[in-house]
Design brief:
CATH topology: Jelly Rolls
CATH class: Mainly Beta
Number of strands: 8
Oligomer: single chain
Number of helices: 3
Number of domains: 1
CATH architecture: Sandwich
Distance between the termini: 136 Å
Structural class: alpha+beta
Radius of gyration: 32 Å
Shape: elongated
Order of helices and strands: HEEEEEEEEHH
Strand order of the largest sheet: 1-8-3-6
Length: 239
Amino acid sequence: MSHNRREVRLLALLAVLALFTHHVAAVKVTVMPGHTECMGETVDAEHFQIPGGPRVDGRVLISGNSHYYVPFVTIRVLSPTGDQLWQQQHVYSETHFNVGARGPGTYKVCFYNPWESRTEAIVDLVYFTLAHLRRGAGGAINIPKGTQEHRSKEVASQDHMEDVRRTILGMSEFMEVIRGSQTYLHRKLERHQQTMESNKRRTLFYTGIEVGALILVGLTQVLVVMGFFKPGKSTKASV
């Protein structure tokens, strides 16, 4: 029983540590025309010990404040050595990138707002993280055979704990992607609601102007018609 309790405590500790090892970046930044803004995410070497191909994953939403121009940006993802891993130009609304990682270090995502955009771009980096979205063949945990006592001792050994730690770390990465996708859907819904409310306000405003113009034209026509039926002034004939 002592081995089981120790195993449970160790697994719980590993789970908590894995959840706090890596975090999802979520930030908004305003990029002026002709400027570039970059954000980085540091990935530790232990994440590359997980079996499977590590991927840099992220989602971006683009918006603006201008009523006359629609902003667009060029997005680049850079490796820790500065090599370009991914690029997309003329991003007007949203995009999703998922590229292979190249070792530990700080990965950067850069947003360039060209002069042709003519207005500031509000970039919403919903999440930017590393995740092993596909597990390799060696990623499974081997459960030892034998009695309960023998299994507890084997599972509590350093090798098996390392397998458990890597598995929990991979699961925490995958949960970050799920949590980031949920945040992305929530942000997208908020943006649609803001667009609907803005369109509603504009529709009510222009409808009010149209109704006011119709009332003004109607009153003008009534006054003009009434002017035609006013009695003329009588003139006295001189003797």
